[in-house]
Protein 1
Amino acid sequence: MLNKEKLPYDLREKISDMFFTRIDTGESGAKVFKVSSDTASYYLKIETAAGELEEEYQKTRWLQGKLEVPDILYFGEENKNKYMLLTEINGRILCDKEHIRNPEAAIKLLAEGLVKLGGVDTDSCPFDNRLEKKLEKAAENVRLNRVNMTDWEETTKFSNPESLLNYLYKNRPPENEVIFTHGDYCLPNIIAELDEITGFIDLGRAGIADIWQDIALCMRSMHRNFGTRKYEELLLEYLGRKQDKEKLEYYILLDEMF
Ligand SMILES: Nc1ncnc2c1ncn2[C@@H]1O[C@H](COP(=O)(O)OP(=O)(O)OP(=O)(O)O)[C@@H](O)[C@H]1O
Ligand SMILES: [Mg+2]
């Protein structure tokens, strides 16, 4: 359990009388807690090893007023741990059963989310996630032994991260639809009421990239959460575009490096 006494003083002051619940999300590099009282609810992310929390902080800060994202109540580092406290976004994550039992409505929301992200003006955006940069980061993850093959998709037929990296360098698809992307556009990172997106969270990988960065991970997440690929066409219909199997497969493979 969390020892509140060990939290940085300025953070502790904001949440000392509140109740903590650990959110178990699985793949996370950070520990996430819901922190609540009778009058307020926040989310606290704590990172104890090298990770993306500082980038998430910078991107969430840059997006204030540009996109529906949480407010940042605290970010700080103490004794090599990083801490970020966020306001709660109202609504339910898209993998919540309320949304899952309304697949058509959920797919529409996912499409609307992609449109909102694409509406963020990239002119002054300092976060470049185009393939040149993204592959540099992938290569660094390989070099530092940070690629976890145990969570690879069953369909990923590479025997080691080096051979996948080599494939990714040699088979780069054209980046002809570069926009602002979430970077980890999966159902647990999008929050919505039944008919409206209320917020985007977990923004550590956000930045400028080809739109298929988000469409591909969205389709992978739809498959995981609905147990079928049959809604892909509906998503594409809402987006007014065609399937691109090459990019779909490429961006899912690329994500194995992160
Ligand atoms: N500001 C917020 N408002 C509402 N719910 C939140 C908020 N932040 C986090 N959550 C809830 O906590 C879950 C996990 O948070 P988040 O997605 O930020 O972390 P993660 O996926 O565990 O971490 P990582 O940063 O390592 O990818 C979310 O899926 C959501 O249910
Ligand atoms: Mg998440």
Note: The CA atoms of residues 73 and 85 lie 5 Å apart.
Protein 2
Amino acid sequence: MAIVHELSWSTSRARTFDSCRRKYYHDYYLSWLGWGRNADPERRKAYLLKKMTRMPMFAGDVVHRAIAEYYARRDQGQTWGADDAIQWAVTELRRGYKESRDGGWKAKPAKSVRLAEHHYHEARIDEPSGEAAKYGKRYVDRITECLRTFFGAPELAQCRDVQPGDWLACEEMSTFELFDTKIFAVPDFAFVDRQATADAGGATAVQIIDWKTGAPRDADRFQLEVYAFYAKEHWGVDPLRTTAVDVYLGDGSLVEVHVTEDVLQRALATIEASLNEMKAVHFDADASKGDPAAFPMVPESEAARTCSSCGYREMCDRV
Ligand code: SF4
């Protein structure tokens, strides 16, 4: 069945929409259909740039995959501790770095690591000067710190030890519907909280966990609130029986959202407003590439802050 271009919503899509409309256009419209080797050159270029990542994101992804690997191995009855996970993750980080640097990503761009730092020849990735080694060490240290927290923090014992039969989700992308629109969500980990369920006389209580490898952001809390709707749609859990937690693995801090009726109504209103803004500029990217002018770039005055880490710099002439 052919994939059809349609408007969908996710918290990351909403963040991109708010940070730069042109980036939003490149991510969700111009890059559409760019996956074919014989695609329209402009669509293909946008698609390849969209598939790039940066070291902070790549390192975060490696930590997420290491934690998912821990759960997969536990499910198979294997023991996999902090040292095993760190070794696995650092090896994966180095493999991805080399794949990007040596051009190995070209064979399968959608499934490979291509770093914007290499594409744009950034000074921080310069090897002869030693800058690349310093930069890489920063992320080896971050990965190590995050995984030591996951395996060692007493506050995370419940997450680590929960029985496989109580797991509900682990890094799986799913969708649900709100306002007749597909909403994408990828909870990092979710499980039935047996103790809270028993305390409530048997009404199922669920915990949804988001692993964070960077610093806290204002948008983090909103993302947790969206998961409460996900829990209702996917597992039929009363959103008010859902606790969503951001775990900042860098320093071990936890931020919990206890869902209330007010929280739900506020989140719903925010999603609706965001969707309405997106609908106002939506067009069918199967039929045309649209008008980029309808999606303005961030002003020059904000370029240093917003464009310096964006993968589309060459398309916007902001290299
Ligand atoms: S380079 Fe700047 S203007 Fe262009 S898409 Fe990226 S953030 Fe937006």
Note: The domain at 158-277 is CATH 3.40.1350 (Trna Endonuclease; Chain: A, domain 1).
